[in-house]
Amino acid sequence: MTQTPAQRPRIGVLGIMQELYDDMLPGITERQAEYTQRVADQLSGVAELVLDTPARSRADAERVMRRFEHEGLDGVLVVMLTYGPSLRVTRALGEARIPLALANIQPDPAVSPDWDMADMTYNQGIHGAQDTANAMVRAGVPFEVITEDWQSPEFRDRVDRWARAARTVSAWRRLRVGIFGYPMNGMGDARVDESALIRVLGPQVHVIAPGQLYRTMGDCDTESVTGLIAAEDDRFRVDEKLSVTEREDHARMQIAIERLLRHHGCDAYSTHFDALGEDGRFSRLPMAAASNLMARGYGFAGEGDVPAAALVYAGHQLAGDAHFTEMYAMDFPTDSILMSHMGEGNWRVARTDEPVELIKRPLDIGGLDDPPTVRFRIQPGPATVASLVCLGGDHFRLVVSEGEILDSQHLPALEMPYGQFRPASGVRACMDAWLRAGGTHHLVMNLGHHAAGWRLVCELAGIEFRQV
């Protein structure tokens, strides 16, 4: 089952100190453990925090990190509870397989005239952070640093942004992308070296035969089909021209796709219209299925575009409700770009003041019958688009643009999801930079401004970030 976007990241807390202070200040380990719990409580709405006993030795640190990795956590927040010599954590952090952040915090936010040597010891984590960070820099380990008052909203916000980026990177490393059939012939910006993709970022490509989809459709039970149709009746304004046959066939395709994704352990997928059209056994393309499955948290891209499908899945993990789209045309009078695709789009980004429609939609592409298609306009407001660029070998680049979805005109002839995106840098500057950076034509869009989060993803994943 795909990970739902609303799930909180699971973050381990590695509290570091040393045995030296136990003789000097009896009870200090218990005291600092309680402080760690208060920090975790402060972050309870941001992430699911997993605590362990303070790591006071090399054996402790390596045991805790092994536990966190074994439990499949999304990241580790390193907290200096006192000064701790970095050589005790050098291997544990230098060989970390999950993203790291160093929280440069201390129990008391201010130095006080009432402080004694005990208070100095409780609050001396800053020079332990320096020693530990130095070890991670020497090891070439990417990590985030968060220097804040741990009781402040800013600390929560920064940990929230890092934790979602960590979840994104960890989810990528576990991801399997299903591709039904084959990629679109001649579409170069979607091509990727599969070995480099899994080596650098983690997603694995898994081909699923169209024949398996056809057989699984035939095995769909009536109850599941009628249940999906009823759910669509409740959510969408359904076109009266859609026949029972068209809706049932679409429902079987969606159910079969999801069952196969679960069976093969795939949380993202791509279909190509020619691969299904030329197969000869399918009546229509799974347009509405793609929209519904994106709304359920799956990554998706059209035309067999594995990098874009993986990026849409990453968008779910980073910001929630990721939407697959592409740049269709420029509108210079409004300094915006018309965003759409053939008919696939996450209806969770639809305008809240208009119904989402399920329409009968003539479509010649693929040479098949009319596919039921979800149609909506995108919610106006802040938005971010991103493109994963494969530059050859182990070189990957993420091209990102922030801007806004305009409260723009109706385009009644467009029988697919659409909206107009105005880049913050303007269409001319944005597109000049986008094209120079090799930005692809298949994109992920999230509502809200998320460039800072994408930048963190790139830093943690070790790939290039380019904002345009």
From TrEMBL:
KW NAD (keyword) present: no
Xref: SUPFAM superfamilies: FucI/AraA C-terminal domain-like, FucI/AraA N-terminal and middle domains
Domain L-arabinose isomerase N-terminal: 18-172
Assigned keywords, A-Z: Arabinose catabolism, Carbohydrate metabolism, Isomerase, Manganese, Metal-binding
CDD domains: L-fuc_L-ara-isomerases
Domain L-arabinose isomerase central: 199-316
Domain L-arabinose isomerase C-terminal as annotated: residue spans: 322-464
One MF term in the entry's GO annotations: isomerase activity
Protein name as it appears in the record: L-fucose/L-arabinose isomerase family protein
Organism, as annotated: Lipingzhangella rawalii
